[in-house]
Structure formats: C-alpha cells, structure tokens
Write a structure and sequence with these properties.
269 residues; FAS1 domain; 7-stranded mixed sheet; 9 helices; 14% strand; binds 2-acetamido-2-deoxy-beta-D-glucopyranose; signal; FLA_A; membrane; FAS1 domain-containing protein
C-alpha cells in the first residue's frame, strides 16, 4: 500500500498508466474464462413443443402460475406436464376451479428441484411442489417406481400418472410428460378407497438381470459436470473424423471410376 502510494506520487501519470495497463488487460480474458452457462430454456415453450401444448396454454393464461414457473427455473425445476389428451379430459373439472385453484393445480405439476430421469427413479417418496406452502407441506404427491415406470399419485387421484417422455433433461430444468392430470387432495376429494388389492410382494422391486446396471445418479443433482459435458463432443469429433476417413477412399474411387468412364466414352466416340 505504502509503496503504491509512493509510486503514485513519484511517477508521472504516463508511467502509472503503463504500470496498470497490463493488469487491466489481464483482467479481461481472466473474467471471460468461466463460460456463461447457456440460458435455461423457456419452460412453457419447451412444454408446448414437447406434447404439452394445452398445459402450457393454461399456464400462460394464469399470471400467478406463469410468474411462479418463470422464477423457479433458475433454482432448479422438474415439471410433470400432462399431455394434451389428459388436459382435454380434465378441462370440465379445471373450468370448475377458482382462478386461485387453477393456479394451484398448475403449480402442483412441478417440483422445485431438478431431477434427471435417472435420479427420479432413485428418489421415490413424498415431494413438495411449487404449490406447496412451505410451512404447511401441503400440495405434495408421492413418486413411486412401478416396474420400469415412474408414477405419481395422491390420495385424490383415481389414476396414477405415469411419466412418459422426456421433453428436457438438462440441469437445472427437467420436463417430463405424464399421461394424466394429477389431482391434489387440497382441491379434490380423495377417491373412494378401492377394494384393497392383494398387495404385491416387495420382491417386485428386485433388480432385473436383463437391465444394464446403471449407477444411480447422485441424489443432489446440482453438481456441475464439466467432464460429462466435455466428453460427448470429443467422441463426436472422433466419430466425425472416423467417418470422414472412411468416406475419403470411396470418394476417390468414385471419382476415378467416373474419370475412367469418361476416358472410355471418349475412346468410343
Ligand atoms: C416464454 O415464452 C412465452 C411465449 O412465447 C413468453 O410469453 C414468455 O415471456 C417467455 N418466458 C421467458 C422467461 O422468456
Ligand atoms: C363443478 O362444481 C360443482 C359444485 O361444487 C359440482 O357439483 C360439479 O360436479 C362440478 N363439475 C365438475 C365437472 O367437476
Ligand atoms: C402431504 O400433504 C398432506 C395433505 O396436505 C399432509 O397431510 C401431509 O402431512 C403431507 N406430507 C408430507 C410428508 O409433507
């Protein structure tokens, strides 16, 4: 500090500028180095493209739901969007809800945590949703594996919702389609309890030998994976090089054949 002050008083301004220029120049590239992560996708647009157009339209028509979805994206979100058939079948019930009830139902279809498809399978249990009042722990549902499928249910839904396709699965956003609208007990009366079915033996969960053993994804899925994102491009490059190398000889051969044909044609002309 003292030395700096001394330099400032002693040196002419030009010299000072020269002294600090390298520092400024060095700060530029250094600040740029950590590449800005790509902006998270627009969830409603992604849903609409991925088979949940009707559900995305309902969100867009509910200012409360739209703004909550939008602000939840940055912190991680997993959306279970009912497909268009499911929403169409549910519309009479939906229209019966108050504006607040509609917003709650829409927010009930997303969890404020990013779960990859793999980590969803290993994170069974009760989950809070965007509709949950943090203190009350209400508006929750139960995620459960059923065979190879991941299902979601509440005490109110007659049907369990099955996770179908993956629309987006890139930290911090996952969007999966489900085949039915999930009904929170807070808005719908619990379904009359069905006749107790013979409970399946716990052996149903035994791992199947035919499935390749995947290591379950980490439960806390927000660890950035530069290694994981780096490897596919490298592989692709290798693949591209390989196929280019494979393509070259046949290309040359084709050209040679064409030349020969032209040569032959001219000798016969
Ligand atoms: C997402 O797209 C919709 C429709 O195009 C738009 O209204 C909304 O503002 C977008 N949201 C964000 C966060 O860009
Ligand atoms: C709409 O609400 C009314 C009054 O609660 C109820 O009687 C009716 O069955 C509801 N309709 C549907 C389609 O849920
Ligand atoms: C889930 O929601 C129900 C109904 O609001 C509530 O009674 C229950 O305590 C909640 N469960 C958990 C684990 O938060």
């Amino acid at each position: 500090m003292r030395r700096l002050r001394l330099a400032a008083t002693a040196a002419p301004h030009g010299v000072l500028l020269l002294l600090f220029l390298p520092l400024v120049a060095a700060a530029g590239p250094a600040a740029k180095a950590p590449a800005a992560p790509p902006a998270p996708p627009n969830v409603t647009t992604a849903m609409a493209k991925g088979g949940c157009k009707a559900f995305a339209d309902l969100i867009a028509a509910s200012p409360d739901a739209a703004s909550t979805y939008q602000s939840a994206v940055g912190g991680g979100i997993t959306v279970f969007c009912p497909n268009d058939d499911a929403v169409r079948a549910f519309l009479p019930k939906y229209k019966n809800l108050t504006a607040e009830g509609k917003a709650e139902l829409l927010l009930f279809h997303a969890v404020p945590v990013y779960y990859s498809r793999g980590s969803l399978k290993s994170n069974n249990g009760v989950m809070n949703t965007l509709a949950t009042d943090g203190a009350a722990k209400d508006y929750n549902f139960t995620v459960q594996n059923e065979g190879d499928a991941v299902t979601i249910k509440t005490a109110a839904s007659g049907d369990v919702a099955r996770v179908k396709s993956t629309v987006v699965d890139a930290d911090p956003v996952a969007i999966f389609t489900v085949d039915t609208v999930i009904e929170p007990v807070e808005l719908f009366k619990p379904a009359p309890s069905p006749t107790p079915a013979p409970s399946p033996a716990p052996a149903a969960d035994a791992p199947k030998a035919s499935k390749p053993a995947h290591h379950p994804a980490p439960v806390v899925a927000d660890a950035p994976g530069p290694a994981a994102t780096d490897s596919p491009p490298a592989d692709q490059k290798k693949e591209a090089k390989k196929s280019a190398a494979a393509g070259a000889p046949s290309c040359v051969r084709w050209f040679a054949a064409a030349l020969a044909a032209v040569a032959m044609a001219s000798t016969f002309a």
